[in-house]
Amino acid sequence: MLRDALVKAALDMLEQGEEPSLRAVARAAGVSAMAPYRHFADKAALLSAVAEQGFAALAVALVAADVDTDPRAALIGQGLAYIAFARARPALFRLMFASDFALTLGDDSGAFATLADRVASLGARDPQAATTLSWATVHGLAMLALDGRLPDLGEDGERRVVALLAGAL
């Protein structure tokens, strides 16, 4: 209960552009400055828990987007949902993939497994390589979009790139 409140407070602070220190998170959760240490050894452990929650939310978004009966259209839906997640929650998205907190591809049984299952349904000759290509391409597109490096692409352009990827698998 307290752990969840601390993670939520840290996530709220992060998404409001604030730096979620243990002391600030404790204050936001209405507990003593030492209370977070019952659940987290340090700030890195707290932020790791926030990143894990981010991956869980990303998995939910990918599953929700994976509804089309056509496998390629469902893969396109996942790709666009991934980019939309990054745009909607940029601070969380960046934290999730920060070197100190990022999960290794395949570690996350939610988001990565959802993608891997969809790619496997396409009958790719090398599903692992195709899944990695899909993740890397869409992640790169999301990061470039967040960094403002693709100002002329827009949502239609993102859809075309993701569709091109899906068609190549």
Report the CATH C-level class of the largest domain: Mainly Alpha
Q: State mean pLDDT (0 to 100 scale).
A: 92
Number of strands: 0
- The computed structural class is mainly alpha
Q: Low-confidence runs (pLDDT<50, min 5 residues)? A: none
Number of domains as seen in the coordinates:
2
Main beta sheet strand tally, sense and closure: none
CATH architecture of the largest domain: Orthogonal Bundle
Q: Give the radius of gyration.
A: 18 Å
Helical element count?
A: 8
CATH fold topology of the largest domain:
Tetracycline Repressor, domain 2
N-to-C series of helices and strands: HHHHHHHH
Q: State the helicity in percent bands.
A: 55-70%
Strand content: under 5%
The name of the CATH superfamily of the largest domain reads: Tetracycline Repressor, domain 2
Distance between the termini: 44 Å
Shape: elongated
Describe the protein in words.
This is TetR/AcrR family transcriptional regulator. Keywords: DNA-binding, Transcription, Transcription regulation. InterPro entries: Homeodomain-like_sf, HTH-type_TetR-like_transc_reg, HTH_TetR, MT1864/Rv1816-like_C, Tet_transcr_reg_TetR-rel_C_sf. It comes from Sphingomonas naasensis. One of its GO terms (molecular function) is DNA-binding transcription factor activity. The chain has 169 residues and is mainly alpha-helical. It has 2 domains: 40 residues; 119 residues, Tetracycline Repressor, domain 2, CATH 1.10.357. 69% of the residues lie in helices and 0% in strands. Helix 4 runs antiparallel to helix 6, helix 6 packs across helix 7 and helix 7 runs antiparallel to helix 8. The longest helix has 23 residues. The chain is elongated, with a radius of gyration of 18 Å. The model has no long low-confidence stretch (mean pLDDT 92).
